[in-house]
Design goal:
This protein has one domain: L,D-transpeptidase catalytic domain-like (Beta Barrel), CATH 2.40.440. It has 1 helix and 15 strands; from the N terminus they run E-E-E-E-E-E-E-E-E-E-E-E-E-E-H-E. A hairpin with a 3-residue loop joins strand 1 and strand 2. The longest helix has 10 residues. The two termini are 16 Å apart.
Length: 165
């Protein structure tokens, strides 16, 4: 189990890795845009996504999906594809996975609010790379590139991810 605590550290396979969490802290996520990293136990949703123009394909047991300029994740609460992968151009609001910064050069979606999807309860919760200046996230968990690369190699498709306050 990958255990992520609200104090900003993750523990897995005997390692302790620093991480950055949501600007709203860690706890019960209430709504889209609240900046809370959702506490609970989640699964890895579909595997690993990488920018092939910036990252080499890692050795991993996870399915690997290339990020292209057309990759998105719907964050429009009233859209039928809310909290799902979408292909751009897309008519509703969506997170663009092909970013100018490096935050999404490698990312792993978590199963938060996926089964069933509750409209407006929060979307696009990922493990991803730190933003410049180690800025807080909008609810995701961010790691340094070397730690995310290690996680990509160490995680398995059935590894649970537990986030605690």
């Amino acid at each position: 189990m990958l255990h992520i605590s609200g104090c900003g550290e993750a523990r897995f396979a005997g390692k302790v890795l620093p991480c950055t969490l949501g600007r709203g802290g860690t706890g019960a996520k209430q709504r889209e845009g609240d900046g809370v990293t959702p506490a609970g136990q989640w699964s890895i949703l579909g595997g690993l996504h990488i920018r092939p123009d910036r990252m080499e394909r890692p050795r991993t047991a996870l399915a690997v999906h290339p990020i292209t300029p057309w990759c998105g994740w719907c964050d429009a609460p009233d859209d039928p594809n809310y909290n799902r992968y979408v292909v751009a151009p897309y008519g509703a609001s969506h997170e663009t996975l092909w970013r100018d910064d490096h935050a999404y050069d490698i990312l792993i979606p978590l199963s938060f609010n996926t089964n069933p999807v509750r409209q407006g309860a929060g979307s696009a919760i990922f493990l991803h790379l730190l933003k410049p200046g180690n800025a807080t996230t909008e609810g995701c968990v961010a790691f340094a590139i070397q730690d995310m690369a290690w996680l990509a190699q160490a995680l398995r498709p059935d590894t649970p991810v537990r986030i605690t306050p």
